[in-house]
Write a structure and sequence with these properties.
The protein is α/β, with parallel strands linked by helices. 36% of the residues lie in helices and 36% in strands.
Amino acid sequence: MRDDNRKSSWPKLASAALSLESHVESSRIAVTMRGNADMESLRSLEAFLGELHDEAVGLRCRQVTIDMRELYFMNSASIKLVVAWIANVQALSPTARYSIHLASNPNLSWQRWTLNALKSVAADLITVD
């Protein structure tokens, strides 16, 4: 397990369509998503979300922030992966759960609809701005 006070870079995902960068700082993981989450990046996104969850649990993180302001498209298969990740967080014991904060782009209508729907799945865990 990492030292909780250490700030560090965490794995990145970069494909032609999607890039994900993450950083660990204290009891928080921050992820930035850019581009398009489509079929080309599906397997990589699935692996990334699994590693993200394992890292958050291992570090006993209190919050994971996903900055989606530069995520221009997310297909339904990718959204399903996010729902599965949320379900994994919900399956944790209450003391092991971490909150999920989604930073959205108000100019992208799909984000308003989709992220609010995700929030309704787990209102106790998810915040959207």
